């Protein structure tokens, strides 16, 4: 494993190596287990102007380091990047295309990334996107980095926009008898003007609804959320609220011996997915747009592939060491292949 | 041409001068070009057929919706094909439960919100041309509007796209979920200015309507004062749905046109709109009032009801067209500066206006630093158009010097094609050209927009 400390070293490495896969914090081994270079030392916040609500940092910068700096100015990344406390980096989060429960309210990592400095397959450093919150000049290449698994260039530096951190948050938990009942309530809450910050459904049919905003408003809004179900929910204490969503961000609900799989779904697929994979650890996040599945480590994912193909929901192994991280319907196509041919003509960044 | 006529009825393949004239220009009226043929398509399979024919014969094409592009994005290519998509305006699928709607590219922007309003939903991107512009055009140019600060641009609201690539291959990416797996191809396609082909079906997310709005119009005696107020509001932790500024000239034009009740004595008016759950607004309104008071506004009006809110927005949205009352011609610029540089940018524009002896009206999305200077000129006076273009160019260079962008939402098109290489280095430009070549080697899709046509493209 080569440890890269400067962008120029990375450029040199790309030019000299037949193949280059990088890792950062190593929190998503399914995507980085075959890495031959580490960007963990390509780290540090380069520019942060709180009044501008943007920051620029090296790709190997740990998310928790960024979150601490932002919090000092009451700012945050609203999509709650997964595995923050476990050491996830900005680059790894973008490459994997992962957003947490907070994605519901203001969007995911794709919506907050403004610019990306990348190294192409020919070792050329290219600054894509911009440093400002609105930009329509040229191809939107930073988008391609999101979920691109490092196949469309290796990121060295990233610019994000951030938002003001809400003063207060509170969570209501509802208990439903069946998945169907839980989904019905989930749809009702997600489609309302209640403006929830997060809405997750766990495997025990408990629905967790979070409200963020000014303290005086949050208390009243939480009460309204609580009353919006036939059987009113329970309001968590402040400590429980913080603990619950922090556990979500770190996947502490995932039992040992399970590999984490991300699935892009819609609420209409939840019941069927729960029915087809009854004994699998799972959680439905982002108002039913994102499923996290705990697949038994070492077990052939054929059944999972079959179910996801049937539901037409693409999946991605995040942890574990599968031969390919993709599971379910094929997401690659001619457009993607042509883009790769332009950015990485020698196929150096190809995922194994 | 005979192959086109074989596959489509004669009344939908137009070549007469009378028929093609209205397609010679778009929202950027200073540019004109004569197309060879206009094809009025009525189904997505017809689009694919036409694209395949263009590919086979190496004929360049421009896909066009309502032609509202302000950067010349739908300007025809000389003797090329114009694929007119206005009749491709059906809703393919709508689910209030999923809060998604799939439409054809000719569907009108504002009609999306109208269609879903009964379910108390709306479509967020709201360019001023919303009543006429199409979703296909919005996708091609990543259109914005007044509400990007909180909710983003078109790219942030497109979930899935089915598109025909320039060689006739049909691809699909994204879907109905907010999430995706694999590279964000949807995001990459949006804003590509037609260079990657034509979007045939577009899945949009629609949002629950905010429960309540609070719309404030504050008057300032300096433009910088209004700019500073924006910075103060952002710093206070508030996240308004929209923050817009209009200067004296823009107010004057807008008031003459629609009498929306803007303060005509003000050097600048700031429009701020809070939106969200009722209780949240109860907490936010006093804070906003305090900040606006501290920012030195000399007059503050609050919309008392839906009608007043709507009047304020009409005043803002008609500003571009109202400028026509002040001047026979104008150029609109679309540069972006870091929000903390707004004051500097506005002073620089003022100085340039004096230097060139041309009036400049300012209407802009202050919340995200997206300027819209309107440069007033009279095209009948020899040299004045060139002067206006020079001035526009200087404004773009100023935006870049301040660390911004040459375009926030109008796109590069033909208008800013010379300035893209000022924003990006040769490495970035090369990569974009390589991508263009990989997707469309013959450069038949919207040739000469965003990127200069290569020698190959020019020859074709």
Task: Produce a short descriptive summary.
The complex is a heterodimer of chains A (352) and B (460). Chain A has 352 residues and is of the alpha+beta class. Chain A is built from 13 helices and 19 strands.
Secondary structure layout:
The complex is a heterodimer of chains A (352) and B (460).
Chain A: E1 2-3, H1 7-16, E2 22-23, H2 29-32, E3 37-38, E4 45-49, E5 54-58, H3 63-71, E6 75-76, H4 90-96, H5 103-106, H6 109-112, E7 113-119, E8 125-129, H7 141-145, E9 154-161, E10 163-164, E11 168-175, H8 179-190, E12 198-202, E13 206-213, H9 215-226, E14 234-235, H10 238-250, E15 258-264, H11 270-276, E16 281-285, E17 290-296, H12 302-311, E18 315-317, E19 326-327, H13 334-343
Parallel strand pairs in A: 1-3, 2-3
Antiparallel strand pairs in A: 4-5, 5-9, 6-10, 7-8, 7-9, 11-13, 11-14, 12-13, 12-16, 15-17, 15-18, 16-17, 18-19
Chain B: H1 2-7, E1 13-14, H2 17-21, E2 37-40, H3 44-57, E3 61-64, E4 81-84, E5 91-95, E6 100-103, H4 109-116, E7 121-122, H5 135-141, H6 148-151, E8 158-164, E9 170-174, H7 185-189, E10 198-205, E11 207-208, E12 212-220, H8 223-235, E13 242-247, H9 248-258, E14 268-276, H10 278-294, E15 299-302, H11 306-317, H12 319-322, E16 329-332, H13 342-356, E17 360-365, E18 373-377, H14 384-401, H15 420-423, H16 426-439, H17 455-459
Parallel strand pairs in B: 2-4, 3-4
Antiparallel strand pairs in B: 1-2, 5-6, 6-10, 7-11, 8-9, 8-10, 12-14, 12-15, 13-14, 13-17, 16-18, 17-18
